[in-house]
Structure formats: structure tokens, C-alpha cells
Amino acid sequence: MLVNLDAVLKPAREEGYAVGAFNVYSLETISAVYRAALECRAPVIFAFGERYIDVANIKVIASMVRTLALDTDIPMVLHLDHCKDIAVIYRAVTAGFTSVMFDGSQLSFDDNLDGSRRVVEFAHSVGVTVEAELGSVPFDAAGAEVPEEYLTRSDEAARFVQATGIDALAVAVGTAHGEYKGKPKIYHDRLGQIASAVPLPLVLHGGSGIPDEDVVKAIGAGIAKINVNTQISSAAVKCMKEITGREKPGALPDIMKEVEDAMMSEVKGFIRLFLANKSM
Ligand code: 13P
After folding, report:
1. CA 277, CA 123: separation in Å to the nearest integer?
2. β-strand partners of 130
């Protein structure tokens, strides 16, 4: 079943679990996420980022995900991840995406608000949901601690959500994209303040490498969507290295299948962790 973010995130925030948003950019990544969702019988979000536009054709990605999602009763979202360019948002919606993220996190508060509001106006008119980001979750800066000035402020978050009409808010509470060098410091107090000020589902980016107890605690506080990429990609690369180190690595279709299986088991691990607090 193909749905938008609202359909999967509202129940998640109400019932205290999170839905995984996994980056996809090929048939293997899509199949890995799809098969994991079917095995766990859990909703998933297929997240295609603006940065993958040159890696895979956006229309082909959309038709693959839509074909698979329409073939099951499990709710699935076709979401555009991190997009700064409103023209690409139009392209994604035209291609059949059910949800988009406008990433104005590098803009001033007012410009971020303005851009997010414009995207909401257009997207909502065609039933597409919108995620925006306030504060900044750093890229490739996964050192020990994210400086406090990057974090989302609860007063600003409340104002932003009210003024834009977005459906989900990505928050900066200490996570970073990519591989962490040390144990990440998650600012749980700040997350609690934001969650009290904002009734919407909250989104945690940089989901790879966070200790399980921090993930479960963050979900308990109001995180309803968790984005994961690096750990799935690393599992695939590790598997490829292992295969190519063999005396007879085998033919490409068999190699691709083995890599897909490695990604699928990683995705299943995340889905189960995100559902840890759900009463089944
Ligand atoms: P990681 O690559 O750190 O898992 O983060 C993924 C992400 O947030 C995509 O938006």
C-alpha cells in the first residue's frame, strides 16, 4: 500500500514507535528494504535523496517503489530525502513521490520558513506530505559532540511548525550523518523540550551508529521517523569485499543477490529496534 508520511508517522508518534527511512538508489537497495518490511510486517519509508539524482533515474526509482508498494497491504512511503532545490521537489511529485523533505537547514530561519511554507502549499494540494529541518544535523562531521549552536530550539520549532504547516520536523539533537568517530552525545533533554512544544512526529537523521538505548529513549520522547543509510551501505561494501576476496567470487547476479541479503538483514535489525516499544 502506497501512502504518505502522515499515514505511518501519526500512529507511530501516538503509539511510541518509529518507522525507518532507508536510502534507496538501485533495485538491490529497494528490494532489500521491501523484503525486510514484508518479513517484519512493518511500515517503511523508501528515501531517495536529491544527491542520488545522478546515480539513478528518479522516474525509474519511483516506478519500482510504486510497483512493489502497490503489491502489498503493508504501508510504504516513497519519500524524497534532503532536497534543497524546489524544482527537484516538483519533479519528484510529478514522478509519483508521496512525500518530500525540503532541506532549508542551511538557510536563515526566515528563509527556511518561507521555503518550507511554499513547498507545503504546493505539496498538500496534491496529497503529498512535507518534512522540514530546523537546526542542523551535520554531514561528514561525525566527531564526538555536535556543538550546541547546531541544535534545534524548542521555541523556534513551535513557531516554525505553526507557520509552515509541515507534517514532520527533523530535529538536531546531537546526531550527525555518516560514521561516528566516538560515542555520539544525544541531547535527550533538548529532545524532550522540543517534543513538549511540537505535537508533530519528529525525525532523527544520522541513524547509523547510535547506541540502541539512545535510540529507544529518543523514540519514547517523540521521534517517529529515523533515517538510516551509512550502516546499510557499509554492510553492503563489507559483503562485496568478502565476496571479491574469494577464489571464485561467482557471477554478478549471484553477487548482487548476496549483497542484497546482507543489506536486508541490516534493515531488519533497525526495523525491530524501532518497534521495540510497540505493543504488538
Ligand atoms: P546515516 O547515513 O548517518 O545513517 O544518516 C542517514 C540520513 O540521515 C539520511 O537522511
Report:
1. 32
2. 100
- Amino acid identity, residue 149? E
CATH of the domain spanning 2-274: 3.20.20.70
Quickly state the pLDDT bin for 46 (edges 50, 70, 90).
very high
What are the C-alpha distances in Å from 93 to residues 13, 70, 78?
A: 25, 17, 10
Looking from the CA of residue 142, the nearest atom of ligand 1 is 3
Cell numbers for 236: 553492503
CB within 6 Å of ligand 1 — which residues? 23, 81-82, 177-178, 205-208, 227-231
Determine whether 212 is an active site residue.
no
Check whether 141 has a pLDDT greater than 70: no
**Ligand 1 test: best mutation among 23, 50, 77, most atoms within 8 Å of CB?**
23
d(C-alpha 22, C-alpha 66), whole Å? 15
CA–CA dist 30, 79 (Å, integer): 12
**Cβ pair 260, 28 in contact under 8 A:** yes
CA distance 133 to 160: 10
Q: What is the pLDDT of residues 54-97, one digit of tens each?
A: 999 999 999 999 999 999 999 999 999 999 999 999 999 999 99
Q: Any idea which residue has 507511530 for its cell? A: 12
The three cell numbers locating residue 98: 508521496
Closest residue CA from atom 9 of ligand 1: 227
- CA–CA gap between residue 90 and residue 118 (Å, rounded): 12
Question: Average model confidence (pLDDT) for the chain?
Answer: 95
* Domain positions in the chain: 2-274
81, 103, 167, 214: which one is catalytic? 81
195-221: average pLDDT:
97
Reference 13, options 152, 211, 167; nearest CA is 167
